[in-house]
Amino acid sequence: MMQGQSLTSTSNYLWLEFNSDHESTAAGFRLIYHSFELSHCDDPGVPQFGFKTSDHGHFAGSDISFGCEQGYTLHGSATLKCMTGERRAWDNNLPSCIGKPLSSSQPYPVSVLSSFK
Questions:
Q1: Is 71 within the bounds of a domain?
Q2: Sign of CA dihedral 76, 82, 84, 85
Q3: How many helices, marked H, and strands, marked E, lie in the chain?
Q4: How many domains is the chain built from?
Q5: How many percent of the chain have pLDDT more than 90?
Q6: How confident is the model at residue 21 (pLDDT cuts 50, 70, 90)?
Q7: Cα-Cα end-to-end distance for the chain
Q8: Would residue 115 count as lying in a domain?
Q9: Which of 36, 49, 52, 92 is a plausible cystine mate for 77, CB 3.0–4.6 Å?
């Protein structure tokens, strides 16, 4: 008999499997559960010159992926995952989007100055 046993899930999923040998568990089982609002990871925002490519929520186990605008390269992890456990936090820092330097074959922008008399 398992009276008084407690199960705790740190995410929004709990898998419970009951196997009966029909000798000592023929009556089945009684399950009492308590639900509560699951704390979530704060919105990490988006990198400057970047965007979200997918957002599966901010709850434990969910993930968000990022990309960069054309001409920028993503530095850091492209995907952040909301960690499980007692404290909700993202597993990596927000990535950044760094501009690619102009190639030598491309002209640099030139400012034209005029003087008036």
A1: yes
A2: positive
A3: 0, 5
A4: 1
A5: 41
A6: confident
A7: 100
A8: no
A9: 92
What are phi and psi for residue 82, nearest 5 degrees? -75, 115
Q: Residue 33, Cα to own-chain centre: how many angstroms?
A: 27
Residue at 31 is within a domain: yes
CA–CA dist 105, 112 (Å, integer): 21
CATH number for the domain harbouring residue 90: 2.10.70.10
Spatial CA neighbour of 49 closest among 70, 78, 76: 70
Q: In b/e form, how buried is each residue of 36-71, taking b as 16+ CB within 10 angstroms?
A: eeeeebeebebbebbeeeeeeebebebebbbbbeee
